[in-house]
């Protein structure tokens, strides 16, 4: 279980998280939505201590995240993370990208590791790219490798920080399919996303963050069909309008409307 | 032009060539080791290491901001002044190593800092520690990025070994001077000295595009 209790985070004078409480149970898929700068990424990054919180506490399976480097390292063993910019290691092959951390952390015997890598690459549909280098792959492929790399550490929880935001529209689907498959396998996941239809389909619970606080949470059907909070309504309306205009072939670029 | 005297001085040229190579190799090797250590330490964020970072910054800035020739003079005249007597070779090795270490530290530091913070975050999120991330993820990419500027610096360093002649280290220029005194052929002597430098530096400069091609070979689809 991941628990956030009254979490506060400041960047200088700017208060980014203003007392966030959240519990993610095992097997649950939680989607976090909210406007840019609302604190959703900061919250996610706090969970695995990429951001040090200024108040409150974060518990991973009842143990406090923080303290000594050793404690942090232990807690991170259970947490896999996927980034917006993939962050693959460009100097290592796909195989070595996946193998590096399990090897250095003595996670598996050598043969078992090789088997795991093949299984993971099959799962994300990229076994044939095993010996390629990341710059030789498309964004979607890189993100699928990044997911496989995180899974190779056998984490209990997966954190996704806008996993499709840096991708070209036609590559988003292949990454979402992999994440969906993980959800079907019962993986516990926290996903920060702007893909509303994806959040609606996959999440057990949707959290709306704005101004550093959770302003609304509930099952996707309720959040998307009958949001209670005014700001949630406005936010969803603006996103859905944009999605609609994309569907209709209307794009707004720097104030110029182009009709196709 | 008359080069008929050259065969008689081949031994001396070879000896001087060897001395230049030796000084160049020492400056390059120990300077690189020193530069890596200083460069890595300069990028640490640990509060306890702050005083060390300040000292290293002063070292790097002082040595980069002062001509190598002056540093040679300072050590050459300064050590005896302080009652320390070390021979010319040791003085030269020391000055060249410290000087190249300061430059290489800057190349390494700026290289490390140019690697995206996302690489660190990916490492930490995969439960790796600082040393593992530095040596397995950051440094290999830094070296790949910095390799051509490093080789460029090495070439400059080897050419700068000629300055050591002024305090009496018997490398190519110093020996060239005594050959010139004996033969009375300054023009031809310095052509020979120049050829010797060229023999060392040219292959190194040809290495840069090879390294760059090799480094870029994975970057293409």
Helices and strands of chain B, in order, run as HHHHHHHH
User: What composes the largest sheet of chain B?
Assistant: none
What is the tally of beta strands of chain A?
Answer: 12
Level-1 CATH class name of chain B:
Mainly Alpha
What is the rounded Rg of chain A? 19 Å
What is the CATH superfamily classification of chain B? Answer: MetI-like
Query: What are the low-pLDDT stretches of chain A, counting only 5+ consecutive residues below 50?
Result: 251-260
**Oligomer category:** heterodimer
Individual helix count of chain B: 8
Average pLDDT metric of chain B: 92
Describe the structure.
The complex is a heterodimer of chains A (260) and B (221). Chain A is of the alpha/beta class. In chain A, the strands form 3 sheets. Chain A has a 6-stranded mixed β-sheet with strand order 6-7-8-3-9-10, with helices on both faces. Chain A has a 4-stranded antiparallel β-sheet with strand order 2-1-4-5, with helices on one face. In chain A, strands 11-12 form a two-stranded antiparallel sheet. Helix content of chain A is 39%, strand content 26%. Chain A has 9 helices and 12 strands. Chain A has helices at 40-47, 69-76, 94-104, 110-123, 139-151, 169-184, 196-202, 220-225, 230-248, and strands at residues 2-11, 14-24, 29-33, 55-60, 63-64, 79-82, 157-161, 188-192, 205-210, 213-218, 250-253, 256-259. With 221 residues, chain B is mainly α. Chain B has a single domain (6-220), classed as MetI-like (MetI-like fold, Orthogonal Bundle), CATH 1.10.3720.10. Chain B is 80% helix and 0% strand. Chain B has helices at 6-42, 50-64, 68-81, 88-114, 117-125, 130-160, 172-183, 186-216. Chain B is flat and about 70 Å long. Chain A binds chain B through residues 48-50, 69, 73, 76-77, 79-81, 83, 85, 87-91, 100-101, 104-105, 133, 135-136, 146, 149-150, 153, and chain B through 116, 118-119, 121-129, 132, 136-137, 140-141, 144, 218-221.
């Amino acid at each position: 279980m991941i628990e956030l209790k009254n979490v506060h985070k400041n960047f200088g004078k700017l208060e980014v998280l203003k007392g966030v409480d959240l519990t993610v149970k095992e097997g649950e898929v939680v989607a976090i939505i909210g406007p840019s700068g609302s604190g959703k990424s900061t919250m996610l990054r706090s969970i695995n201590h990429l951001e040090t919180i200024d108040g409150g506490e974060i518990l991973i399976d009842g143990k406090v995240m923080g303290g000594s480097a050793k404690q942090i390292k232990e807690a991170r063993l259970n947490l896999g993370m996927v980034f917006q910019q993939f962050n693959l290691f460009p100097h290592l092959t796909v195989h070595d990208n996946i193998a590096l951390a399990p090897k250095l952390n003595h996670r598996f015997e050598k043969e078992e590791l090789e088997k795991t890598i093949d299984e993971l690459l099959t799962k994300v549909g990229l076994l044939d790219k095993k010996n390629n280098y990341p710059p030789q792959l498309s964004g979607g492929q890189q993100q699928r490798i990044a997911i496989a790399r995180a899974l190779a550490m056998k984490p209990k929880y997966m954190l996704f920080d806008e996993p499709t935001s840096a991708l070209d529209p036609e590559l988003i689907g292949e990454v979402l399919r992999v994440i969906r498959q993980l959800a079907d396998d019962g993986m516990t996941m926290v996903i920060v996303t702007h893909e509303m239809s994806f959040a609606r389909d996959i999440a057990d619970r949707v959290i709306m963050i704005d101004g550093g606080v959770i302003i609304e949470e509930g099952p996707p059907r309720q959040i998307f069909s009958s949001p209670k909070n005014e700001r949630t309504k406005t936010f969803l309306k603006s996103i859905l309008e944009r999605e609609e205009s994309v569907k209709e072939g209307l794009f707004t670029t720097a104030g110029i409307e182009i009709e196709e | 032009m008359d080069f008929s005297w050259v065969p008689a001085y081949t031994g001396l040229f070879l000896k001087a060539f060897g001395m230049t190579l030796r000084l160049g190799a020492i400056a390059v090797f120990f300077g690189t080791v020193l530069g890596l250590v200083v460069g890595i330490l300069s990028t640490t964020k640990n509060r306890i290491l702050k005083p060390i970072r300040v000292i290293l910054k002063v070292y790097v800035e002082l040595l980069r901001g002062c001509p190598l020739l002056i540093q040679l003079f300072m050590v050459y005249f300064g050590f005896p002044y302080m009652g320390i007597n070390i021979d010319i070779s040791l003085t030269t090795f020391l000055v060249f190593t410290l000087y190249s270490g300061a430059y290489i530290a800057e190349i390494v530091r700026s290289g490390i800092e140019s690697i995206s913070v996302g690489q660190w975050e990916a490492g930490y999120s995969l439960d790796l520690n600082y040393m593992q991330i530095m040596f397995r993820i950051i440094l290999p990419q830094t070296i790949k990025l910095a390799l051509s500027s490093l080789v460029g610096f090495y070439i400059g360093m080897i050419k700068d070994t000629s300055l050591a002649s002024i305090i009496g280290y018997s490398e190519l220029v110093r020996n060239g001077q005594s050959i010139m005194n004996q033969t009375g052929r300054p023009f031809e002597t310095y052509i020979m000295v120049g050829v010797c430098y060229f023999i060392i530096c040219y292959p190194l400069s040809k290495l840069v595009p090879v390294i760059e091609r090799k480094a870029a070979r994975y970057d293409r689809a």
